[in-house]
Design goal:
Number of strands: 4
Family: Belongs to the low molecular weight phosphotyrosine protein phosphatase family.
CATH superfamily: Response regulator
Keywords: Hydrolase, Protein phosphatase
Helix content: 25-40%
Enzyme class: hydrolase
Strand content: 5-15%
Number of helices: 6
Number of domains: 1
EC number: 3.1.3.48
GO molecular function: protein tyrosine phosphatase activity
CATH architecture: 3-Layer(aba) Sandwich
Strand order of the largest sheet: 2-1-3-4
CATH class: Alpha Beta
Largest sheet: 4 strands, parallel
CATH topology: Rossmann fold
Length: about 180
Amino acid sequence: MTASAQEPFRVVFVCTGNICRSPMADIVFRQLAREAGLGDRVGSSSAGTADFHVGEPADHRTLAALQRRGYDGRRHRGRQFSHDDFVRNDLVVALDRSHERILHGWARSEADTGKIALLLSFDRSAGTLDVPDPYYAGPGMFDEVLGMIEAAGRSLFHQLEPAIRPSAPTGPSTTPQ
């Protein structure tokens, strides 16, 4: 998949309530795109499989962990994943295998199923496929989870970057013969 000149490559990150892991992944991924000068070529969002926190800001511990690493998550508001997210996005990234199973159950076509991936599958050094849910843990776990998300987000971005980056124009050579 490649981003066209008009349409950015769109990614949605999915966890349970959309207040901890998926907002972290969204914010990290958008920052990676901006730092690479590709912020206008990438669209990133997040959603939850459940409707527990629709309209709410990210968990205060999520915001604190993000802030400690130089990210700003204050604009985030929770929302639930919908079938339209399969249409709007080129890639649907689950934060753990339970989300992946739910998304596979919601997929209406092979095209939808083909868009689903696990975030940690992009990080060969992860040692697991599930980003743990820090919701019932302390601030240290939020920092640990953010570190996992940053590493996997970098790996994902580096894998997608060649398809996202505009290709150099081709034309006649201006080199003297």
